[in-house]
Structures are given as structure tokens and as C-alpha cells.
Here is the input.
Amino acid sequence: MSTSALNIATWLTLLRIALIPVLIGLFYLPWPGARVMCALVFLLASLTDWLDGYLARKLNQSTAFGAFLDPVADKLMVAVALVLLVQNDPEPWLALAAVIIIGREITIASLREWMAEIGQRRKVEVSWLGKAKTTLQMSAITLLLFAVDWWTEVLQPLGYGFLVLAAFMTLWSMINYLRAAWPILMENR
Here is the structure.
């Protein structure tokens, strides 16, 4: 890998991946405030998602490696946090929301890979809906991580509400991507 692929935006993305074991460790530490720290780590990682994209555009440092790594970091972080939350509160509707979100990410990543193979990647590029969905997911997860140990009676219902909205937007964005790809998917190749 060339050093030009390792710019500040890419380092922020790598930091997001490196924070995943920290997130897990803090979630399971039996210390007072550990889960609040876990929520702060997730919030920091979420902010780096916005910051790395902003810096890559602002500093003209977009790279193929960064474009590949950024969504991987996001998906890993969200999936890990959702698994932690479901393990902590194994409610069926929470598990369903997590399955919808994680399943959509796998489906759309596979769709994008296949569309790229056939030269049709532009039909399934990230949209404003996908960005809004990601913001809602990260907000919901941050609130729910804080709610595990702190201000539960207020943050938990708010986080659950955001997560339900995020699951709805997740399905909506998946349907939009599949609709855009549907004619190509139905072709006999």
C-alpha cells in the first residue's frame, strides 16, 4: 500500500476499526461507568465517520483504499454494537431491528459488489437516504449504549424509537437500492 493511501482520513477510519475491541471491552467491564465510556467510544467512532469523509473531500485525499475501508468500518462498528445491545436486552423486537439492519448491510454490500463486477456500480451508489439511515442508526445505538447504565428511563425509550426509525429507513433504503438494480438482476445473463 502506498503512503498516499494512508492519509488523515484513512487513519481516522482505521481508528474506528481499532476502537471496536475497546468498545467490546468497555461494554463487559464490571466497573461503574464502563458502559458510559463504551457509549462515548461509540460516539467518538461515529463522529470519525463524518470527519473522515469531510476531510477526504476537503483535503482532496480520497483514495480507493479509504473508499473501500470506510463502509467496512461503519458496518463492523454498527453490527458489533447491535450484537452487544441485543445480548444485553434480548427482546424479540430489538433482535428483529438488529437483524434488519445487519441483514440489509450484507445484502446491499453484496449487491454493490455484484453491480461493480458488471460495470453498473453507479446505479447503487450511496444516497442521501443511506446517509440519513446511518446517522439515525448511530444516534440510536449511542443513546442505547448510554441508557444501559445512565439516565435509562429517558434515553432508552428515545434510543428504541430512533432504532425503530432506523430499521424502517434501513428497509426503505434497501428497497430503493434493489429497485434501482432490479432490471439488471432480472436480465438473463
